[in-house]
Design goal:
The protein has about 130 residues and is mainly beta. It has one helix and seven strands. The strands form two sheets. Strands 6-3-4-5-7 form a five-stranded antiparallel sheet. A two-stranded antiparallel ribbon has the order 1-2. Strand 3 and strand 4 form a beta hairpin. The longest helix is centred in the C-terminal third of the chain and has 6 residues. It starts with 18 loop residues before the first strand and ends in a 5-residue tail after the last strand.
């Protein structure tokens, strides 16, 4: 059986994905996003997190954000849930866990170590 492209990001994959081509959009590609680059080539240098999503409905009151350079990327861990990417003024040294009330509250900003510049992506529609 042929392995799917997303499964090839699994570090244990028999044929790990090393590169791929994709169109790059500004905004959400399914909701009036604008194509910025067609057939751009990407190299997979490192898989930071690989986990299959659980289809079961469950709710969590806290969100875990992983640092990736000068960004925090929210882990998907509930259903329903939301995607969230936050820009920082400097890299965060470690993951943070906060209440799902958002990174605009003072508790969250203290935990990030670096000042929050703002959300660059927030999506709720795809994770119901």
């Amino acid at each position: 059986m042929k392995e799917g492209i997303m499964s090839r990001l699994d570090p244990a994959s028999a044929s790990p994905l090393r590169s791929f081509g994709a169109d790059v959009f500004s905004g959400h590609f399914e909701r009036e996003g604008k194509r910025m680059h067609a057939a751009a080539q990407f190299v997979v240098e490192q898989v930071i997190l690989y986990r299959r999503l659980d289809p079961a409905v469950r709710s969590r009151l806290e969100a875990r954000y992983l640092p990736v350079g000068r960004f925090l990327v929210k882990e998907i861990d509930s259903r329903p849930d939301f995607d969230h990417i936050v820009a920082l003024s400097a890299p965060a040294p470690s993951p943070i866990t906060i209440r799902k009330s958002g990174l605009d509250n003072p508790e969250a900003q203290r935990k990030t170590i670096a000042p929050v510049r703002g959300s660059i992506y927030f999506e709720t529609g795809d994770l119901r």
